Amino acid sequence: MTAGWTEDRVGALKKLWLEGQSASQIAKQLGGGVTRNAVIGKVHRLGLSGRATPSQPARTSTFRPARTRTTPPAQPSAPRRIEAAQPAPRPVVAAPSLPAVAEMPGTATVMTLGAHMCKWPIGDPSSTEFSFCGRRASEGVYCQEHARVAYQPQMKRGGKEELARSLRRYI
DNA sequence: CCCTGATTCGC
DNA sequence: GCGAATCAGG
């Protein structure tokens, strides 16, 4: 006797889903051994889908015309995806010299900074208060949040004023 | 690697 | 109706 999507749980599911929670998060909160697949399955079954403000991703872009299950799961060893090498992008800004301000992330120091930790500089590099973001690095050497500001292809016109403005949110 | 949702299909 | 497996993208 597990699961069973009682109205109670369905209600919680809808609430959390519309709340912007991710499927895995909802599954974890609902407990009861439900997996994110179960949540997603139910969400679609209910007719819910494609909410605003998902989570990290900006919608799974690229419309998929409902793939009709090609490639039967028989023989493996099939060249699936071919990734290209990384262009090793560089941050558009170099350690802004602003007063060291403690933040939620930024506890990692040069000593504790691990290989897969976000290396976004927090504070003044010449200060003893200097640290790094330290969260899980997913895009290059930065976490997703910092990668977005670090790897900006172009700066929308506005000048240093706007740059400093947008930067302050991440320092 | 981690993550996200989407879809199919056997149960 | 349910959800694991799988796919496809970030």
Characterization of this structure:
- With 171 residues, the chain is mainly α.
- Among the domains are: 7-46; 100-152, no CATH class.
- It has five helices and two strands, in the order αααββαα.
- The chain has helices at residues 7-19, 23-30, 36-46, 144-150, 160-168, and strands at 121-122, 131-132.
- It has a two-stranded antiparallel sheet.
- Helix 2 crosses helix 3 (36-46).
- The longest helix has 13 residues, at 7-19.
- The protein starts with 6 loop residues before the first helix and ends with a helix.
- The structure holds a DNA duplex (11 and 10 nucleotides).
- This is GcrA cell cycle regulator.
Summarize this structure as a short list of keywords or feature phrases.
5 helices; elongated; mainly alpha; DNA-binding; GcrA; two-stranded antiparallel ribbon; 171 residues; GcrA cell cycle regulator; 2 strands
Topology, element by element:
Elements: H1 7-19, H2 23-30, H3 36-46, E1 121-122, E2 131-132, H4 144-150, H5 160-168
Antiparallel strand pairs: 1-2
Helix pairs in contact: 2-3
The structure holds a DNA duplex (11 and 10 nucleotides).
Biased composition (Low complexity): 57-72
Organism: Brevundimonas subvibrioides (strain ATCC 15264 / DSM 4735 / LMG 14903 / NBRC 16000 / CB 81)
Region (Disordered): 47-89
Summarize the structure.
With about 170 residues, this protein is mostly helical.
Number of E-type strands = 2
Low-confidence stretches: 76-86, 94-103
**Largest sheet, described in full?**
2 strands, antiparallel
**What's the number of helices?**
5
> Which term fits the overall shape?
elongated
**Gyration radius, in Å:** 21 Å
Class based on secondary structure composition and strand pairing: mainly alpha
Q: In order across it, which strands form the biggest sheet?
A: 1-2
Compressed to H and E, one letter per element, the order equals HHHEEHH
Pfam families: GcrA
Protein name: GcrA cell cycle regulator
Biased composition (Low complexity): 57-72
Region (Disordered): 47-89
